[in-house]
Design brief:
single chain, 321 residues, alpha+beta, 4-stranded antiparallel beta sheet, 11 helices
Length: 321
């Protein structure tokens, strides 16, 4: 397998700007795009938002109310509902917050994502594997294994502290605005970022973060971290990223420590994120993990992939129920 890296200029394509000035707003809210978004929301089902409207009733609701909703959107007076807070357990303890939008807001966000994703995706580096068409965690593990076989046997494991909760809205929107020139689209995305969170009947303001659980969140997370990707790609670093899981592969411990410092600088100073110093570590490849995968060496220098010990223990504990 060939690794996808090269040194040189960042990944940039002018194709993403095609039809950018041909009213992006109308593309998002065209009948065809909305119907595709509606089918996606219906297929995904999911729990209701703060208004209690279930996905199976969204189509009928839109037949009665979409005209007034579109009028409010066009006038800039549409106000998204706050997301409903849902806490789910994390594999290593603690809890992760999901934000569940109303089904109407899921429809609008899905329509936005369908138009915006192709515009941004073509610029993303090949080694960004999270939430992208035809890419998976398994693909990331295969590339990691290949790089290790090529001699990059020290791994920088970068852990971002509560990434989805700490995204700086101004930093994010400035990166969205690099390609999106329609002010109505930008204003609507900003409204979703600041829609607030409803927990136990109390609405909390959102001054930072992009809660997991919305159709836009995966795209926005990749847009936010693309500066990191472009910087490390242009330097020729061997790395993979899946959402906020970042692994960089180098040939010596000393180089790995230097790269960890570089990564921390880009993430904290440029993107205003927070690197978890306790969990961001340098490990030999035989100790490092990636997305629940571990790695081990066999005769001839080949590398094999297995379930990481923590993932294996979780799986065995589940099998006991």
């Amino acid at each position: 397998m060939q690794t996808p890296w090269r040194s040189g200029e960042p990944v940039v394509s002018g194709e993403g700007l095609r039809d950018q000035q041909v009213d992006l707003w109308e593309q998002v809210f065209s009948r065809g795009n909305l119907l595709i978004a509606l089918k996606r929301v219906e297929r995904n089902k999911g729990t209701a938002g703060v208004d209690g409207l279930p996905a199976q009733e969204l189509r009928a609701w839109c037949q009665d109310h979409w005209a007034e909703t579109r009028k409010a959107l066009d006038a800039g007076t549409y106000v998204p509902l706050p997301v409903r807070q849902v806490m789910i357990p994390k594999p290593n303890g603690g809890q992760r917050m999901l934000g569940v939008p109303s089904v109407l807001d899921r429809l609008i966000q899905q329509a936005l994502a369908q138009v915006l994703s192709p515009m941004f995706d073509e610029r993303f580096v090949p080694v960004s594997y999270g939430f992208r068409p035809d890419k998976s965690a398994h693909d990331a593990a295969v590339v990691a294994r290949t790089v290790m076989e090529q001699g990059y046997r020290w791994v920088v494991e970068v852990d971002l502290d509560a990434f989805f909760d700490r995204v700086n809205h101004d930093v994010l929107m400035s990166r969205v605005a690099r390609k999106v020139k329609d002010r109505r689209v930008l204003k609507l995305i900003r409204k979703y970022l600041t829609a607030g969170i409803m927990a136990q009947g109390v609405r909390r303001e959102t001054v930072e973060g992009t809660p997991q659980g919305s159709p836009l969140s995966p795209l926005l997370s990749n847009i936010m971290l693309d500066d990191f990707d472009q910087e490390f790609w242009s330097r020729g670093h061997r790395f993979v990223r899946y959402a906020d899981d970042i692994r960089v592969f180098v040939k010596s411990k000393r180089a790995a420590e230097r790269v960890l410092a570089q990564a921390t600088k880009v993430l904290e100073q440029r993107l205003k994120l927070r690197v978890n110093r306790q969990k961001s570590v340098v490990n030999p490849a035989s100790v490092a993990t990636l997305l629940g995968f571990g790695f081990y060496f066999v005769k001839g220098g080949q590398v094999r992939v297995r379930a990481a010990s923590k993932a294996w223990k979780r799986m065995m504990s589940w099998s006991s129920f």
